[in-house]
Specification:
The chain is an alpha+beta fold. Helix content is about 50%, strand content about 20%. It has four helices and three strands. It has a three-stranded mixed β-sheet. The protein is elongated, with a radius of gyration of 17 Å. It starts with 7 loop residues before the first strand and ends with a helix.
């Protein structure tokens, strides 16, 4: 697993400032949380979650992404 220094946080930092960890996840797609100098947890955005999804779940994710990306256009069309 290749990690940049930006993707690594300590358990203390994650505990004290989770919003900063969430921002890093938004920027880097994933963050690894170290505990006792060893990788212990990986934090992903739900949009980048590396899990197998059912076809229905894939459609849900795709629809959510499309709606998020083109929301203004859909709102204009709805007028």
């Amino acid at each position: 697993m290749n990690l940049s220094e930006r993707q690594i946080v300590s358990i203390t930092e994650a505990n004290q400032n989770f919003s900063a960890v969430a921002r890093k996840v938004d920027e880097c797609r994933k963050v690894v949380v170290f505990k006792n100098n060893l990788p212990k947890y990986v934090v992903y955005s739900i949009d980048n979650l590396p899990l197998e999804l059912t076809d229905s779940e894939k459609l849900d994710v795709a629809a959510r992404r499309i709606l998020k990306r083109y929301r203004k256009a859909f709102e204009e069309l709805a007028k």
